[in-house]
Structure prediction request, 453 residues.
Amino acid sequence: MTLLVVGVSHRTAPVSLLDRIALLDHAAEKLQVDLLGSQHVAESLVLSTCNRVEIYAEVSKFHGGVVDVTETLAKAAGVSREELTPHLYVRYEDRAVQHMFEVTSGLDSMVVGEQQILGQVRGALRSAQETATAGRSINDLAQAALRVGKRVHHDTGIDRAGASVVSVALHLAAERLGGTLVGRRALVVGAGAMSSLAAISLVREGVADVVIANRTHANGVRLAEQVGGKVIELGTLREHLAAVDILVSCTGSTGLVLTTAVLAGARGASTTPYVVVDLALPHDTEESLGDLPGVSRIDLASLADLPEAHASERDVELARGIVAEEVRAHLAVMAAQRVEPIVVSLRARADQVVDAELQRLRMRLPGLDDAAADEFARSLRRAVSTLMHTPTVRMKELASDPDGARYATALHRLFDLDPEAIEALTAADEAAPSPSDVTVVDPTYDDLLGGLS
Prediction:
């Protein structure tokens, strides 16, 4: 089996495409399940955020797995494979592990070091567990990634520059409103994770009033109570637009929540500063809102190049060092798991020899009392276990060596072990692409597919 990631993000695709392929409602869960119905995918986890869609999969064949994942993603996103593939990136095995560790640590985020991604990865893992699409490999990878992400944030200052997309967006909004949000009136559309974070952050920044508009009234009430604000029906949004200075929207719904015509009608001839922060994918608001007098529109694309979105080089270097160390450790664990069938088979073979010898002893010495027989059995098993300890430990250590599979094969042949054990090891080796299948540095989709795309 081969660990694989196929994804598209703000680094490889325009916001317009990310808008179109955003997985809404329960689309990510359905995609995970659909992936397991394809020929080569055994496990799957879908990470869908405001600026990326990534599929982590355990596949039986590399090329077949990439094709299966790509076609299933294109179908779920409602775009053609030809339109999607120029923007895809593919990573496998060690590069897939490294990529997930970097993503979870915030190193690959639009705002480098943001912490929200930790919760998003945790949510993706929970979803994959609930849909029973994450097996041992994906579970181990995601759990390790969450631990690495926490370590990076704890041991470095990578998140000092910007804790989240929300904090950076609100900082920019404050600049557009004269340098501060203190005393301003805010309207938050949505009551999900991003909207909740925005509402809490607005209160911390000193806004005077917060109004929550949400499609599900009960969720809106819950958030309003949390931040000491009030809730309105989403259908009455137009009536409240002119009464605020800043509107933050992140609903994750299809269609526009706010159009230019509606805001223009609500503001009339006003030219007072007004900020619309759209953190949704697909967009909640019309892009031409920013053309209205006095109105500034901030979206995800406008945040990418801000100085606040970049952590210090030293902190990034420290974070990458931690990730590299953790990748090596995780790969060693993966390699040890890969030769586990050989190790188990070797121990089973040793137990068979011991059992046969004990049975032979009882037949030759029928008068041997039970206490003496038990003591002899313990001594024999202890001696064999001691002899087996070093070879099995060394086998796991050598598994991460480039010739680790050869050592395992040699051990299998020397001791005439269970054929199924070597078949499992051989299948794992055959699933991965050969070095000639890939380029060394950041291969493209076409490079990895050998022109099949």
Notes: Strands lie at 2-9, 41-49, 52-59, 89-92, 185-189, 209-214, 230-233, 246-249, 274-278, 295-299.
